[in-house]
Each structure stands twice: as structure tokens, then as C-alpha cells.
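Priority: medium. Attachment 1 of 2:
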């Protein structure tokens, strides 16, 4: 051996990146986020003592998130992709430290950093997936990735609320930090590489504004964004307002955590819906899922705080529909995006999550000034029906 021998020779060979590797990463990342997912809105409610004020807080934080997401692809021009991913994990850790302060400023800072860290991780992982998974395999690999995260999203929300109720506001944040550290260790063990044929891009980073224009100019990308935005509106409403509905309905904080855990447990069905999409079409699964989600949300809204158990049952059904959308809803984008535009277009596409946190919270904060908490899910139902109709009209029948 010479002094020029690469260090990597002395390291054990990492497994070849594939669907399983990405599924494991996503599962561990999901735990780090899931364990505080229910705590975020419940802690905000404890600080503000009002569902409308909680909605306003989410709106204010959401105003600052989209720009941060749009700037994430620029990081890929100045930093190796592995360090961008590492930055995302560190943002989750700092967010948990902010939440642990149990102050209004810490709450707002934690909410912002948590969303930004999630954006960095999602965008970077999506780029790794697009580099290593063939397009024809996405119908199977994407549901598999979501199914691996089922345990995290089943255990995490209830565990977080239980820790919060039994041991105080710092306990779930400690669990989240431990999950983030484990994620970082696994990620560096896998030593994922960037596809050089795709990663070789322009020397100068693409302006976020130019990326937005390029994205909007492509009808298939616009439709893919709308579909993703629609399904994300359900989940953001579910995570923020379902626990509040349980509290105001008299069932308590832990009931909210149990509902979120039960709703996320059905992510295991993502594989089933992926197989159904293979036998029928992605279009049919997407359209039917939006229809069922709209009907369930409407029923939950009409039940409201007067019948919280019925509302919870309807939201559980809605989560099944949303899980099917999680399994196949991202495929229209992955099949439409062009190779050399992946980083820039993924950054724009990822804003669907930011806007699904911002726009519903803004609308709901106004509506909650006049109506009870059930109005949230009635408005949501109307929107899901509209997106389902758009998908039925404009998604290619061959998809």
C-alpha cells in the first residue's frame, strides 16, 4: 500500500444503493420527525390556548418557508450532496432544541427549522432516488419506501404525545434528536454517490425565479404539483387540527396522538395501492383516492367536536385514501421531470409541502373566527374534490 491509497479502501464496502437502502433512510428520518409531529400543534395550543391562534402561528411561520425551500437546490451547487443531506439532519436537531425551550419564540423557530430541515432531506433523498432507481421501477420502489416508514409513523405520534404528557416538553425532543443521530450514522455508512452523468450541470446555480418559470411552463409538472399539494393539504390539516379536535371534543391529548398513529399505520397499504396502480393505472388510484378523502373529510367536519369519535373514524378512513396518494401521488412528477433539471425542478416541486402548511392554515384561521373546528375538514373536503376532478380531467389515461 502507498500513501496515495484512498481511505475508502480501508472501509467496509457499503451496500449497493437501491430501493431498500432508501426505504431504511426514509424510515429512520420519519421517526425523527414523527415523534414530534403531534407535539408541535399540541404544544402550540398549550402556549396559545386557542385553535385560531395556533392556526395563525402556522400561517406566520409558513410565510417564510417557501423561499427557504426554493434556495435548497442552490446548496447542491456549492456543497457535495452528502453534506447537504447532513445539513438537513442538523436542522432537525436544532429544531428540537428550540422546541425544548417551551417558549413562543422557540416554538416558532422550531417549526420553521423543522420544516426547512425536512425540505432539505426530502429534496436530497429524491435526487438520490432519481439517480439510482429506474423510472419503470418507481411504481414499486415508492410504495416500498413509504411502507418501511409505517412503524415510525405508527409509533412516533403517540409516543411523542405520551412522552410530552408524562415527562414534559423536553422528552419527545430528546427522542427526536436520538433518531436524527442514528439517521446520520446510517447515511454516512451507506456512502451514497451522485450519478455523474446527471449531476454534471451548469457551473452557475440556476436562479430560483428562473426555476419557477421553467416549472410553470411545463403542464405536466404543474399538474404533478397540484396533485401533491392536494394530498399534502390533507396531511397538514390532519396533523394540526385532528389533535385539537380531540382535545376540544373532550377526549384529551393522548387521543389525538392515538388518532395520528392509527392514521399513519395505514401507510403499509401504500404497497397494496402501488400494485393496484400497476394492474389498473396510476390515474385511477389518484382520482378514487381524492374522492374517498373528500367524502371522509366532509363527514368528519359535519361530526365535529360534538361527535369526536365519529369524526376520528372518518379521518381514519381519509388517512387510508391519503396513504394511497402517498404511494403513487409522486409518480406523475418523477415521470415528467427531465434529467438535467432534477435539482432545480425538485426544489420547486417540494414547495407543495410548504404551501400546504401555509394556505390551509391561512384559510382556516379566518374560518375559525366564525365557525367551530369542524369547518376545517369541510373546507378541506371541497378542496380534495376539486383536485380529484382536475386529476380525472388532465392526467393521461395511460399513466
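Attachment 2 of 2:
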Amino acid at each position: 500500500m502507498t500513501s496515495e491509497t484512498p481511505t475508502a479502501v480501508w472501509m467496509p464496502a457499503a451496500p449497493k444503493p437501491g430501493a431498500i437502502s432508501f426505504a431504511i433512510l426514509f424510515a429512520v428520518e420519519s421517526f425523527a420527525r414523527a415523534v414530534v409531529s403531534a407535539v408541535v400543534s399540541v404544544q402550540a395550543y398549550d402556549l396559545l390556548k386557542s385553535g385560531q391562534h395556533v392556526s395563525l402561528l402556522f400561517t406566520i411561520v409558513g410565510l417564510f418557508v417557501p423561499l427557504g425551500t426554493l434556495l435548497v437546490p442552490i446548496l447542491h451547487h456549492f456543497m457535495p450532496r452528502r453534506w447537504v443531506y447532513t445539513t438537513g439532519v442538523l436542522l432537525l436537531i436544532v429544531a428540537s432544541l428550540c422546541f425544548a425551550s417551551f417558549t413562543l419564540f422557540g416554538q416558532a423557530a422550531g417549526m420553521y427549522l423543522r420544516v426547512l430541515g425536512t425540505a432539505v432531506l426530502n429534496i436530497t433523498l429524491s435526487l438520490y432516488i432519481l439517480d439510482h432507481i429506474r423510472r419503470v421501477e418507481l411504481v414499486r420502489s415508492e410504495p416500498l419506501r413509504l411502507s418501511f416508514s409505517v412503524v415510525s409513523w405508527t409509533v412516533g405520534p403517540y409516543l411523542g404525545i405520551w412522552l410530552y404528557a408524562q415527562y414534559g416538553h423536553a422528552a419527545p425532543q430528546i427522542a427526536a434528536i436520538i433518531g436524527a443521530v442514528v439517521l446520520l450514522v446510517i447515511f454516512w455508512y451507506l456512502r451514497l454517490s451522485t450519478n455523474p452523468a446527471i449531476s454534471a450541470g451548469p457551473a452557475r446555480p440556476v436562479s430560483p425565479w428562473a426555476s419557477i418559470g421553467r416549472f410553470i411552463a411545463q403542464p405536466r409538472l404543474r399538474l404533478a404539483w397540484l396533485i401533491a399539494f392536494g394530498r399534502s393539504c390533507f396531511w397538514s390539516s390532519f396533523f394540526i387540527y385532528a389533535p385539537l379536535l380531540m382535545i376540544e371534543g373532550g377526549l384529551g391529548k393522548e387521543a389525538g396522538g392515538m388518532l395520528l398513529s392509527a392514521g399513519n399505520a395505514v401507510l403499509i397499504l401504500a404497497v397494496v395501492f402501488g400494485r393496484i396502480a400497476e394492474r389498473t393505472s396510476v390515474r385511477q388510484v389518484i382520482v378514487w383516492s381524492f374522492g374517498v378523502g373528500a367524502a371522509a373529510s366532509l363527514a368528519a367536519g359535519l361530526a365535529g367536536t360534538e361527535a369526536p369519535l365519529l369524526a376520528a373514524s372518518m379521518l381514519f378512513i381519509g388517512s387510508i385514501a391519503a396513504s394511497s396518494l402517498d404511494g403513487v401521488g409522486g409518480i406523475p412528477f418523477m415521470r415528467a421531470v427531465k434529467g438535467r433539471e432534477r435539482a432545480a425542478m425538485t426544489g420547486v416541486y417540494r414547495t407543495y409541502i410548504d404551501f400546504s402548511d401555509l394556505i390551509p392554515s391561512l384559510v382556516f384561521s379566518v374560518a375559525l373566527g366564525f365557525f367551530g373546528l369542524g369547518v376545517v375538514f369541510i373546507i378541506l373536503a371541497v378542496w380534495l374534490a376539486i383536485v380529484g376532478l382536475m386529476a380525472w380531467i388532465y392526467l393521461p389515461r395511460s399513466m
